[in-house]
Every structure is written in C-alpha cells, then in structure tokens.
Amino acid sequence: MVKTTRVFSVLLLAAVPFACTTMSTYPPTAGKSISTPNNSPGPEVMAGAIKEASRISGHTGPIVFNLPAGLAANTWSRVQSLLGDGARPMNAGETDAFSVQQLRLDGGLAEVDVVYPERGVYQLMKVKLKGGAIGPWRVDWSYRWVIPAAAPIANGPRVDLAPGELAPKTEIVGEVTPTSAATEAATPSAQP
Fold first, then answer.
1. Which of 78, 145, 155, 169 could form a disulfide with 43 if both were Cys (CB 3.0 to 4.6 A apart)?
2. For residue 95, what are the CA distances in angstroms to 29, 55, 92, 119, 150?
3. For residue 137, what are the CA distances in angstroms to 46, 47, 78, 81, 142?
C-alpha cells in the first residue's frame, strides 16, 4: 500500500506543472496569453520543429533559420546551438531558410508553425511536440500544408534585452498596449 501511494504521489506531482500552465502564443494573437519564448522550453521547441521541417523536406547541409521578431540574442544563440552542424541565423536577402512563424505552448504540448523552402516555393508545416518537466521535447507529429507561403523576412535578435527579460508587447487589433496608450496620451489632440 505504501509503495502504491508513493508511486501515485510521484505521478501526481509530475502532472501538477502541466495543470497550472496556461496556453501562450508567440507572436501573440488576440485573446491568448502572451509569453515570450526567450526561456525554456521556447528555444528547445523551436529548434526541434526546425529540425523536423529540415528532415521531412530532405534538406541537406547546414540549416539557415529564422525566429519570430522580438526575441533576445541569447535565444537565437541557444537555438543555433541546439541545431548544431553549422546552423546560422538567416540574413536579409537569403531565400533558403527555415522560419518559425508562431509558437503555441500548453503545458507539456507545443505546436510550432514553420515555413520552409521546397523546390523554390515556401510551404507551411505544423509540428506538434510533447515533453516538459519529466522528459525532453520530442516530435509527436507534423503536417505539411501544400499551400504556398510568403517568403520569410529575416528577423534579427533583440540585442537590447537582458537575459530573461520579455520583449515589449506587440499591438493586437482591438487591444491597447501600455506603449500605444502612452503614445496616444502624449500626442496633442487635433480637436479645438
């Protein structure tokens, strides 16, 4: 009985972090929690999705990658390190890059949208990963959309963010952010 209780307790404690985590989306969308993936598991999940897109597309050679705008330089470095084998960030004007468009985290589940090059056309792939506190993040499944996607624009790392600091909120249609509210208040009104 004591052994069964201990096993149950360990399983319960392992599940608690997942039960307390809200879903977050980056870049943010209206109605979703905003959490900048500068810290774990953000880099691990993005690197895992890029590797999967590279593997499925049959890409050979070093990976050129692109992350969403607003992420800290240490996040870019961590993703580069996790990708290994000569991986590097995308430069302006390059046309062969794996670009993370959006990341959604919900406890021990993650979904990443990656735009990747295939035969001269960019395609969208959704990669779902599972993992977290009790194990590494692993690809659960991926789905390739056979719909052309817009070529990614090279984003660079935010060098003015301290490690662990969140990027400023992005304006979302219909929402007022602290930055936009302060700008509106400081702008003189055109009314007489």
1. 78
2. 27, 18, 9, 11, 11
3. 10, 10, 15, 16, 14
Take residue 130 and report the two structure tokens written for it: 């599972």
Q: What pTM value is reported for the model?
A: 0.72
Tell whether 136 is covered by a domain: yes
Higher pLDDT pick, 89 / 175: 89
List the domain range (segments joined by +) for residue 74. Answer: 18-161
Please give the mean pLDDT across all residues of the chain.
Answer: 77
Is 23 a member of any domain? yes
Instruction: At 182, give phi and psi (nearest 5°).
Output: -65, -40
Could you tell me which residues come within 8 angstroms of residue 94 by beta carbon, excluding any fewer than 6 positions away? 64, 154
The predicted structure's pLDDT at residue 24? 84
Take residue 52 and report the two structure tokens written for it.
Answer: 């999967």
Residue recorded with tokens 């985290």: 105
Number of helical (H) and strand (E) elements in the chain, helices listed first: 4, 8
In a domain, residue 180? The reply is no
CA–CA gap between residue 162 and residue 151 (Å, rounded)? 30
Per-residue pLDDT tens over the stretch 47-91:
999 999 999 999 999 999 999 998 999 999 999 999 998 999 999
For residue 160, the model assigns a pLDDT of 60
